[in-house]
Amino acid sequence: MPSARFKYIHLLLTCFRRIAGGQDKGSWPFELESEAFLARRPSVVRPIGDRFAEAAEASTDLVELGAALSDATLELGFHHFALLDHASLCTGAGLVRIDNYPQAWASEIVEFGYAGDDPVHLASRRSAIGFSWRELGTLVRLDRRQKAILSRSRHHGLGEGFTVPANIQGEPSASCSFVVRRGFELPEARLNSAQLVGVHALRAARRLRPAGVAARPRLSRREVECLRLVAQGKTDWEIARILGISTHTARQYLKRARAAYDAVSRSQLVVYALRDSWIAFEDAIPPFGRMG
Q1: CATH number, domain with residue 248
Q2: How far apart are CA 175 and CA 145, in angstroms?
Q3: 142 and 64, same structural domain?
Q4: In terms of domains, do 69 and 105 share one?
Q5: Among positive and negative, which fits the CA dihedral 52, 53, 59, 63?
């Protein structure tokens, strides 16, 4: 008569064969680690940063990169994204701009010239790491227009956001932003992952940026007039007096011109304007070298 020990071993072997063969997997209270069973176990999910890095590296154009970034955005717990060279809002030639913002908001940004005052873009210049939009007031001093821009974004359904900046010398300033809809909480637990995804997206965008020299930005007549006076060393107050406009308006014209060129200073803006023939050397250096 079989011993109790033999019956126990027989029972284990029988259950092992049934589990390995795919029968009644849920009938045994623990799992037996056979090769066949391990082969059927779901693979460990890899971190989103690693998976997106591969997808971004494999992207052959901005359309593919945008599709990968859209999927990653949803997985991170956000609803919208914007990956762009900041100057692309003024001139699109040779620059990157990919986003899934509401169309009405994207159009309003361009139509009303928000680029030069966008607080997110301005804050991007002052940070080397990702930042939440709640921190904007600590990175830049928000004026009335910048607060109005944020208010308009909420009007179009955007809520809190997280932005990863890119400031590389000799290249256009850029950023990758992730945004939740108005009324939703920022997915705080996923911000480190969002930082990694943003870095890889910006890296891929640099690789896929359209080749060739960007076209000359479009400047209005008033912006060119202000530029000509800046080249002569005039202050905003003096420009306003000469042109018969307010100091605030003169400052706005120059902000828009700087945004169009992604210029970090007035002197750099003048150099760009000279290069692109918006102004002539004679405008900057009057006869006999006399200014004023």
Answers
A1: 1.10.10.10
A2: 21
A3: yes
A4: yes
A5: positive
- Asked if the model's pLDDT at residue 247 lies above 60, the reply is yes
DSSP labels, 101-160 = --HHHHHHHHHTTGGGG-HHHHHHTT-SS-EEGGGHHHHS---HHHHHHHHHHHHTTEEE
Query: What CA–CA distance (Å, rounded) separates 142 from 135?
Result: 11
290 has a pLDDT exceeding 60: no
> Could you tell me the CATH number of the domain that includes residue 59?
3.30.450.80
Q: Torsion over CA of 142, 80, 164 and 170, rounded to 10 degrees?
A: -90
Phi and psi at 176, nearest 5°, equal -130, 115
The Cα–Cα gap between 48 and 34 comes to 30
pLDDT tens digits, 35-57: 443 445 455 678 999 999 999 99
pTM (global) more than 0.85: no
Residue 64 lies in a domain: yes
Q: Which domain holds residue 21?
A: 4-34
Treating both helix axes as pointing N-terminal to C-terminal, what angle do 144-155 and 103-111 enclose, rounded to 10 degrees?
160
